[in-house]
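ARCHIVE CARD
CATEGORY: sequence design from structure
SOURCE FIELD: tokenized fold
FIELD CONTENT:
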């Protein structure tokens, strides 16, 4: 299935994978508002659709947006409330890079009317598609799991202190999915020694995980924030590293298989 703002591949497994920050598009009519640096969309979750392509072959559904998070962040609440209170956050329509510098030219950041237009044009179609696909899966399988997949530079002092663990699993403090699923995933991460990991650390789950993680209704959601160094060369611009990607893929495959096989 294809929409002007996303593509959706529907599978037969009880799992939908969302990669909300993999898009790189900037609509031509908006491009003059951005700084030259911003047009390189450096805070993209680079190549995650490529990294998780194996999951479609396993039977999972996969939804991929076309446009950059610099246009609108598909993983932020419509009300634009901070995801992590007391820490630096980017907004529904971000105005800063992850390093803190502005992404818009002076006086060109979107106002309330433009933000609402972007909600209708980009945010709402993606969110509606996720809700519909999860409902389709739940009707067919009895339950549905949303896996919200992200990646990020390992060190970003404006957002967090120090160096992130390789893998950051978020379940909104054990509330967005069944405890059995959280245990199965955390046990799998703890059983390997190649990658450092944390559960419900700095990144506990964004708005997609919080919205669609309703275990009592048969809807379960988890987020994985993975550091770029797991599969990329982090030097600017970040580059796909085939050797690193091949090394991490078996673990990602095991996580996906666990989510597909788990039953409430």
């Amino acid at each position: 299935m294809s929409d002007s703002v996303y593509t959706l591949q529907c599978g037969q497994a009880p799992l939908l994978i969302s990669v909300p920050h993999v898009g790189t598009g900037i609509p031509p009519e908006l491009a003059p508002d951005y700084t030259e640096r911003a047009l390189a969309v450096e805070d993209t979750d680079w190549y995650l659709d490529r990294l998780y392509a194996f999951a479609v072959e396993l039977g999972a559904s996969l939804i991929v947006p076309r446009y950059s998070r610099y246009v609108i962040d598909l993983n932020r609440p419509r009300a634009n409330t901070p995801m992590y209170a007391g820490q630096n956050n980017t907004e529904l329509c971000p105005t800063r890079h992850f390093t803190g510098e502005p992404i818009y030219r002076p006086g060109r950041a979107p106002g309330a009317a433009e933000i609402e237009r972007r909600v209708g044009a980009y945010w709402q179609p993606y969110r509606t598609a996720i809700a519909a696909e999860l409902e389709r899966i739940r009707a067919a399988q009895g339950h549905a799991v949303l896996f919200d997949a992200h990646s990020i530079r390992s060190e970003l002092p404006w957002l967090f202190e120090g160096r992130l663990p390789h893998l950051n699993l978020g379940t909104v403090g054990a509330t967005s999915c069944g405890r059995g699923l959280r245990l199965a995933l955390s046990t799998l991460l703890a059983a390997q020694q190649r990658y450092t990991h944390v559960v419900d650390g700095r990144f506990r789950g964004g708005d997609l995980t919080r919205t669609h993680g309703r275990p009592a209704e048969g809807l379960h959601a988890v987020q994985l924030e993975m550091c770029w160094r797991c599969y990329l060369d982090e030097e600017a611009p970040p580059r796909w590293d085939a050797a690193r990607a091949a090394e991490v893929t078996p673990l990602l495959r095991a996580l996906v298989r666990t989510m597909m096989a788990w039953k409430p």
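CARD ANNOTATION: The chain has one domain: 2-261. The radius of gyration is 18 Å.
SHELF: design records, drawer C
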